[in-house]
Write a structure and sequence with these properties.
- With about 240 residues, the chain is an alpha/beta fold.
- The chain has 2 domains: about 160 residues, P-loop containing nucleotide triphosphate hydrolases (Rossmann fold), CATH 3.40.50.300; about 60 residues, no CATH class.
- About 35% of the residues lie in helices and about 25% in strands.
- A 6-stranded mixed β-sheet has the order 6-7-8-3-9-10, sandwiched between helices. It has a 4-stranded antiparallel β-sheet with strand order 2-1-4-5, covered by helices on one side.
- Helix 3 packs parallel to helix 6.
Length: about 240
């Protein structure tokens, strides 16, 4: 039997509130080093809330978040980035008035080493389209190019764990395939990935394991193939009757 991946991220009994609204109700899961793990669920299930809590943008009321066994609960967002976790938010959230290169430079804002230019060239190798448009104002890029830029900006922080929130949203099918191929490439380069995605079929096709969130609870977990074969998952998330 293959040895289970060493836990990189462990989420333990996480409770998150928006005012009086109890958004996450005891969520627990793990993401092992080198894995692609997907988090599935309908709108309002708590997927984005989970990623925002992990990246330091929301403060959980109780529970814990461990990175390599050390708690990062309560750490501010910039400190979480410095620890090796970067977040590509839903809707891309690029800096529209800055150029492609300036957006990428913003991704490296926590760094002071001399490898930034070299890492930018690595991003351009992953996304050749961005290199072609390096001086273009980001707000004039296509939707697919903006998604590439959002991922590239996150990579400039040299993450060990990449949080991806709905990377296929609003993209044409051919671009969706391209983005997911790129996610696999990034993973093969040594980056662990936690993927939130409405396109459950695509997410399960590249992930090793997955969890299903419903109204703030984890209700199912398993290998990606097991979830893809699960009748409830097929009906609720894969559009089958």
């Amino acid at each position: 039997m293959a040895e289970a991946p060493r836990p990189t991220l462990e989420v333990l009994n996480l409770h998150v509130y928006y005012g009086e609204i109890h958004a996450l109700k005891g969520v627990s899961f793990r993401v092992g080093e080198g894995e692609i793990v997907t988090l599935l669920g309908n709108n309002g299930a708590g997927k984005t809330t989970t990623l925002r809590a992990l990246s330091g943008l929301l403060a959980p009321r109780t529970g814990d978040i461990l990175l390599d066994g050390t708690s990062i609960l309560g750490a501010p967002a910039h400190a979480v980035v410095q620890r090796g976790i970067t977040h590509v938010p839903e809707g891309r959230r690029i800096f529209n008035r800055l150029s492609v290169v300036e957006n990428l430079e913003m991704g490296a804002y926590t760094r002071s080493d001399r490898g930034i230019a070299e890492d930018m060239e690595r991003v351009f190798a992953v996304f050749p389209r961005l290199k072609e448009r390096r001086d273009q104002v980001a707000g004039t890029l296509s939707g697919g190019e903006q998604q590439m830029l959002a991922i590239g900006r996150a990579l400039m922080a040299k993450p060990r764990l990449l949080l991806l929130d709905e990377p296929s949203m609003g993209l044409a099918p051919v671009l969706v395939e391209q983005i997911f191929e790129t996610v696999q490439t990034i993973n093969k380069q040594g980056v662990t990935i936690l993927l939130v995605e409405q396109n459950a079929a695509m997410a399960l096709s590249i992930a090793g394991r997955g969890y299903v969130l419903e109204t703030g609870h984890i209700v199912l977990e398993g290998r990606a193939g097991e979830l893809a074969d699960n009748a409830e998952v097929r009906r609720a998330y894969l559009g089958e009757t």
